[in-house]
Amino acid sequence: MQPLIDEARTFPARAAAHGVNLGPHTTGATPQAMFIACSDAHVVPALITGSRPGDLYELRTYGGRISPFTECEPTSEAQTIEHAVDVLCVTDVIVCGHSRCGVIDALHPDSEAAPFHLAAGHWHTLMQFDALSAYPCVQARLIDRTLRMHAWFYDIDAGTTARYDPRASTFLPL
Predict the structure, then answer these.
(1) Four-CA torsion 70, 74, 77, 80, nearest 10 degrees
(2) What strand order describes the sheet that includes 148-155?
């Protein structure tokens, strides 16, 4: 725990050394995108995208799962999505899955084949993408073409990211 405390104490100096402004946020500034990913500690959206504070609005859940939309009792995830889409008016939403995901292992504990896990990870990512597409706030913005959605897949071992290409029906390198 002490290394984390030490890093937190020196964060302002390190941020300043890298030209990161930690001062008051500009009124009306919005993140460039919403990034939905697994809460796995190996997946670090800001490092993957080279983002700075304020660039990404993140939603991290177990397995990057997106709960189905329900109007009666919206989940905290649903409220986060609605805030990003309706209040912050992000223009892009990235749903990012990753390799070596514990959700895939939990769903298929008897399979150790790497190609299977890759395919299952891709499938899981696309299922979350579809779940997000069913949100009314997302549908409205997709219809008026003010929101773009992207499905990405991060390979933890290689450090590479692929994007889903619907024309090719596969994930291709970014």
Answers:
(1) 120
(2) 56-61, 33-38, 92-98, 148-155, 160-165, 170-173
Of 98 and 20, the structure prediction assigns the larger pLDDT to 98
Tokens of 75: 């989940």
Distance CA 87, CA 22 (A): 23
Enumerate residues 6+ apart whose C-beta is below 8 A from 35: 45, 49, 56, 57, 58, 59, 94, 96
Which 8-state DSSP code applies to residue 21?
-
Q: What is each CA distance from 72 to 11, 46, 76, 132, 134, in whole angstroms?
A: 41, 33, 13, 17, 15
Question: Which residues, listed in sequence order, are joined to residue 171 by a DSSP beta bridge?
Answer: 164
Give the pair of three-digit tokens for residue 57.
Answer: 């609005």
pLDDT tens digit sequence for 97-123 = 999 888 887 777 666 666 777 888 999
Whether 45 contacts 101, CB under 8 Å: no
* Average confidence (pLDDT) over 145-167: 96
Model-wide pTM > 0.70: yes
Angle formed at CA 40 by CA 97 and CA 84, multiple of 5 degrees: 65
Is the sign of the CA dihedral 137, 143, 144, 150 positive or negative? positive
